[in-house]
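To the wet lab folks,

You asked to see what we're planning to order before we commit. Fair enough. Below is the target structure as tokens, and below that is the sequence we designed to fit it. If anything looks off to you, flag it before the synthesis order goes out.
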């Protein structure tokens, strides 16, 4: 069996690392000549809309998947006309436009922050009377890790925030003063069986994920599962799906979903019986899904923009280092470390050590 992946970054790399023990081969398509899956996978070098390369990928892969959601819809549809594609291009189409995504969530009865579409500065001024302050202005498409976003604190911020967007279609959302950010990851295979991971509790800095902790028996688990199940069913979803949520006053609001393996699930590599990457491979090949039971207490810390010495990371007990083979650059995720522990106290102590190391090299 051969899986084709659109994108050859660290997510594709970790999917491949999980698939090889199952005898699966990989071929990746990416425009970057130094993409970090290259060491592991056969690499088709070129743009995502290069029809010749897409045809080759479709021809040579038994099933095609993606490591990011901003794949042009036409590309996903072209591939789907030529081979099996999971998840379905429709999931991408919904996830890559924040307005379509929020409307979709609402129609399913999944609460979201208040939001409105904005196409001009005038419209932004008008809708702010309904949304209220503070708020966040976001580009509708191509945004991730807080990119293309501005916080609006007063009417004096509107013009500069709008100018920053350079006229692209936008959405404005009420700024949620959440108690916690959590996410839930589910996997569903072609036969329709699904599994859910324990929710992750997430800490962001500057819009980028910093720490995720596995929360077994979290009081929000049942509600989070209920919401992600609605999405899975509505999209007839196959593969791994992640839903990011804000906890507010004992309830949950959806921020966004990602139709792919997700950074907040990286702890599953060592912290779960079966990782999200392996379950993605199993799901799209219609294999039985693996148990999502946690293995002890687990958390993950991201390294962004820079890396300490590997020795320093390995010196922390029960740490598992994942270097992505990417040159450090400002704001770029270059590695993560999973930490396991027998008690939550021990986990939090070692997470704090890792965060201190991450802070010492972070250039943002
Ligand atoms: P996003 O790119 O939409 O996932 O946003 C990145 C991060 O910005 C989120 O994980 C939150 O920490 C923060 N954020 C995004 N939208 C909101 C919101 N409406 N209210 C409060 N914080 C937000």
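Sequence we intend to order:
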């Amino acid at each position: 069996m051969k899986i084709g992946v659109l994108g050859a970054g660290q997510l594709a790399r970790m999917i491949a690392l999980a698939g090889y023990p199952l005898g699966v081969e990989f071929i990746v398509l990416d425009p970057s000549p130094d993409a970090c899956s290259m060491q592991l996978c056969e690499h088709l070098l070129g743009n995502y809309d290069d029809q010749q390369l897409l045809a080759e990928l479709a021809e040579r892969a038994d099933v095609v998947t993606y490591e990011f959601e901003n794949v042009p819809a036409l590309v996903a549809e072209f591939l789907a006309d030529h081979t099996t594609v999971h998840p379905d291009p429709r999931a991408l189409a919904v996830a890559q436009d924040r307005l379509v995504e929020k409307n979709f969530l609402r129609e399913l009865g999944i609460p979201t922050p208040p939001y409105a579409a904005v196409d001009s500065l005038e419209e932004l001024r008008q809708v702010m009377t309904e949304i209220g302050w503070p708020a966040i202005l976001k580009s509708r498409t191509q945004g991730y890790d807080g990119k293309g976003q501005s916080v609006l604190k007063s009417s004096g911020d509107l013009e500069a925030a709008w100018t920053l967007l350079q006229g692209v279609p936008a959405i404005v959302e009420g700024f949620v003063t959440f108690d916690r950010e959590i996410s839930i990851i589910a996997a569903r295979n072609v036969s329709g069986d699904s599994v859910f991971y324990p929710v992750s509790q997430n800490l962001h800095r500057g819009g980028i994920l910093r720490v995720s902790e596995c929360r077994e028996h979290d009081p929000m688990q049942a509600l989070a599962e209920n919401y992600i199940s609605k999405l899975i069913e509505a999209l007839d979803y196959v593969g791994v799906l992640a839903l990011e949520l804000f906890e507010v006053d004992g309830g949950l609001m959806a921020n966004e979903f990602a139709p792919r393996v997700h950074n907040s699930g990286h702890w599953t590599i060592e912290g779960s019986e079966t990782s999200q990457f392996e379950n993605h491979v199993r799901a799209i090949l219609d294999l039985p899904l693996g148990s999502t039971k946690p293995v002890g207490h687990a958390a993950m810390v991201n390294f962004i923009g820079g890396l300490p010495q590997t020795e320093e990371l390995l010196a922390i007990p029960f740490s598992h280092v994942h270097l992505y083979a990417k040159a450090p650059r400002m704001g770029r995720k270059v590695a993560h470390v999973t930490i396991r522990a027998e008690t939550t106290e021990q986990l939090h102590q070692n997470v704090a050590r890792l965060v201190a190391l991450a802070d010492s090299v972070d250039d943002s």
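Structural context that might help your review: The pocket of adenosine monophosphate is lined by residues 113, 136, 143-144, 146, 173, 175-176, 181, 204, 207, 244, 255-256 (CB under 6 Å). The mean pLDDT is 95.

Thanks,
Computational group
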